[in-house]
Amino acid sequence: xxxxxxxxxxxxxxxxxxxxxxxxxxxxxxxxxxxxxxxxxxxxxxxxxxxxxxxxxxxxxxxxxxxxxxxxxxxxxxxxxxxxxxxxxxxxxxxxxxxxxxxxxxxxxxxxxxxxxxxxxxxxxxxxxxxxxxxxxxxxxxxxxxxxxxxxxxxxxxx
Amino acid sequence: xxxxxxxxxxxxxxxxxxxxxxxxxxxxxxxxxxxxxxxxxxxxxxxxxxxxxxxxxxxxxxxxxxxxxxxxxxxxxxxxxxxxxxxxxxxxxxxxxxxxxxxxxxxxxxxxxxxxxxxxxxxxxxxxxxxxxxxxxxxxxxxxxxxxxxxxxxxxxxx
Lengths: 159, 159
What we know:
Shape of chain A: globular
Number of domains of chain A: 1
Number of helices of chain A: 7
Helix content of chain A: 40-55%
CATH architecture of chain A: Orthogonal Bundle
CATH superfamily of chain A: Protein of unknown function DUF269
Number of strands of chain A: 3
Order of helices and strands of chain A: HHHHHEEEHH
Radius of gyration of chain A: 16 Å
Oligomer: homodimer
Distance between the termini of chain A: 42 Å
CATH class of chain A: Mainly Alpha
Protein name (chains A, B): Nitrogen fixation protein
Largest sheet of chain A: 3 strands, antiparallel
Largest interface: A-B, 17 and 17 residues
Structural class of chain A: alpha+beta
C-alpha cells in the first residue's frame, strides 16, 4: 500500500536482522500471513508498510474507518511489544486495540492487573514511522517501560 | 427489546431508588439518551432491558455481530462501575469494551496503570441479569474489588 522511502536496502536488512524488536515484529506479521503471501519476502519488505514518510502521511485521509490492514499493522506492533515483554519477564501479557470510527482510541497491554502500555491513538489511519530505526526505537522504548513497570510492581503483575 | 420478568414493580422501584449502583446506572443510560426517549420513563423501565431471564437468554442467538443496543448496555454497566469507583476514590477511571464479532472480548476499567476491572466476556449477545438484585450485586462486587485494589496499590493508580 505504502512504498518504503529507504535509500539503502542492504543497511536496512542488516539493521533489521540485528534488532530484537524488529525481528519479533516480523514474526508477528508472518504468523498472521495465513496465505503465505510473505513466505518468500525478505524481512525488510515484510516491514515496509510500517515506514510512512511525513509527506505520505499528509496524503492519507483521516476520515472514515481505519483501513483493516492498518489496524492489523498497529495490532502487530503492540503484539510485538507484548511478546518482547513476555520473553523478558516471563509474565503473560494481553493486548487490546480499541479504535473508534474516526481513528481515535487506545492501545493497551497489561499483565495481571498492571497496565504496562497505555497509549492513546489518534489519526490511526496514518500509523507509521519515518524509518526502521525510529520504528525500532519506539517499540523498544515501550518494551523497556513495560519491563521496568513489571520489575517495580511485581505483586500487581502477579494478581 | 426484552421484557422485564418482574412480578412486583413497586418493590423493584423502591429497590432501585435505594441502590447507589443502580441509580448510577440509570444516570449513565439517561446521559446517552440524546433524543429524550426515556425522559418520562421511570428508572425501573430504563433498566428493564438489563433483566433477561434464563429462558429468554436461551432464545437469543449468539451468532453474528452483537446488537449495538446490547453493546451500549454492556458499556453503560461498566461505565457505571467506573463512575462509582471514581466517586469513592477520587481516581479517574477509563473504560474500554473490546468485543469480537462473535461476542467474545474484554471489559476493562483502569486508573493510572492499575487495572481495576478486567473481565473476559463471552456470549455478549445474551448480556443480562436474572433480577435487579443480581444486577446490583454484580455491579457492586466489581466496584468494591476496584476500590480495594486502588487502596492496596495507590502508587500504581497514581502513575
